[in-house]
Amino acid sequence: MKTINDEKITIYNGEDIKNFVFPDKFDHTQSGVPGNPCYNFRFRIFVFFSYIVLTQLFQLFCTPTEKIIGVWDVGHQITTPINNLYKDYRWFSILIQLISAFILDVAYFYISLYWVLYQRNFRLFAALIIFYVIRAIHLNLVKLEFPQNYYWEDPNIPSLVVKYGFFSDFFYSGHVGYLVICGLEMKKIGKKYVSTLFFLCSLYQAFVVITFAIHYTIDVTTGCIFAHYFYNQVCYWEVKIDFLLKTIANLFGNSSKSNTVKYQVQGDKQIGVTNV
Q: Does the record carry Membrane as a key word (predicted)?
């Protein structure tokens, strides 16, 4: 006799995916939460006029009018005493740099090896590729001047992913964005403690790049935003990306023999793989 758990176990043949079937479109003029205040006409009128008032107030009081020469960065101004400590006590700056480099190197190896050993989708590297390609384009479209307190001397201890010296690679921060993507990926696969650690490390990297003045404050905030946005977009297009990757692989495949791979799934968790 079959139990309820037995009925939840199904066999999924990944090789049978030949095209995509999408559900009917959702009416995006409506809400997924019926009865929320947006269904009230008076509330919508209130929001409309509030929006008009707030936009005008922001234009009047929140738009800078000073004629700034160069770049004015509050983050650099606030952290100038820490920046001076780095210059006065070289051992201290080396320690902070090495911790930063160690975090990024470990993250680089961990996330890459975890993907190689355990994951079967291109989601992580698709997000990283998009993140760094768009970053490279921005770096060459707009070249910013070096901050006055820029200080990133070589500690004479090599790092796999961190380079030292003078490089005009400001917008946006790869130090911070990379760890945000790593944290989002770990959260996606259910490793919440590792994810939290990555997010905390991204805060440390933000502190480092601002206090050393190797990034402007806006580089850090936009690095987080871009990382989050690109990762979410990759998650949205994940199946299509993997399907495209499979199609390309089939075009350049050397073997005409096709292997059928059956995945035994319980709920949304894969519990076994069988080649037939």
A: yes
